[in-house]
Prior knowledge:
Blueprint: H1 3-6, H2 16-19, H3 22-26, E1 38-44, E2 47-55, E3 59-66, E4 79-80, E5 86-91, E6 99-106, E7 112-115, E8 131-132, H4 143-152, E9 161-164, H5 166-169, E10 171-172, E11 178-179, H6 182-196, E12 200-203, E13 207-208, E14 221-225, H7 232-244, E15 248-253, E16 258-259, H8 279-282, E17 283-284, E18 289-290, H9 297-312, E19 318-321, H10 324-328
Parallel strand pairs: 9-12, 12-15, 15-19
Antiparallel strand pairs: 1-2, 2-5, 3-6, 4-5, 6-7, 6-8, 10-11, 13-14, 16-18, 17-18
Helix pairs in contact: 6-7
Amino acid sequence: MSHENSAQHSSHSATGRLTDDVFLFNEGTQFQLYDKLGAHPLVHDGQQGTHFAVWAPNAEQVSVIGSFNDWDREAHRLHPRGDSGIWEGFIPESTKGALYKYHVHSRHAGYRVDKSDPLSFFNEIPPKSASIVWNLVYNWTDNEWLRTRGRANALTAPMAIYEMHVGSWKRIATEQNRSLSYRELAVPLAEYLQKTGFTHVEFLPLTDHPFFGSWGYQTTGYFAPTGNYGTPQDLMYLIDTLHTYGIGVLLDWVPSHFPTDEQGLGFFDGTHLYEHADPRQGFQPDWNTFIFNFGRNEVRSFLISSALFWLDTYHFDGLRLDAVASMLYLDYSRKEGEWIPNRYGGRENLDA
């Protein structure tokens, strides 16, 4: 089968996952988008491969480039699913561990760009920025914690939260002062938290971010943990271990803004797809970041799916949201004339 033809087989049974969900996505109520879009390894017609799906409604053409086709922009073209804005295709040559990006050719001004997958499960370690075909298979052992955690997480339960940055909690001086991996961290951290009487640990953002030297608040991967400390399964092992020790696990999650790095969400298909086009609404000068367009149905679906993804797939017990005030108030850190009032003339961001 030629490269060109292989991606044309997008109507296989697995893509039925999208048929009943496109309407919900477009109206902003599909909250398990991570099962619908992104890269999903599977077997189709006896062939091992990957089904790709990405939202790029203003694209003239989208193709998958990667380690399996020498980053050839013409080798694996995706195909639109009706007028949903979703491009999809099945590629037999792509299997777990393959590197990939989406090459987006916009309808506007001939704009072309290579983008990381907004719904990838795993990415290269920055400054590299390709996504990685991966699965989320893991044999969890925290059933007892999940069964009883309602009591531990209740508003009336005692709670002492230990906030920490994984990369700087403990380092190995004899190995170029490197950080501990997720797996290396698991037991020492669990024992420390038990000894010191903490009930929960809150991790500063572990969502993929482009600069390791930061605290992680510039998220580029809303469904991918940073690979600086290991694989998705390694993070699952860390959470699983903490639960085994009776420790609740919270994640610092950042839906308020996202960085302008070219491979990220900004100007995704040659238009301001995820962010507001007007910089008075869509750009945060304090952090040099884009602001999500919370009023766009598909963006709401994307963000709520991300929140639920970390709770569902990774068994996190709760989320801490950063910079909430910047989400709630249109005039946050802006002078008069630098912001747009809501439809009632007020400063509240009603969509947020």
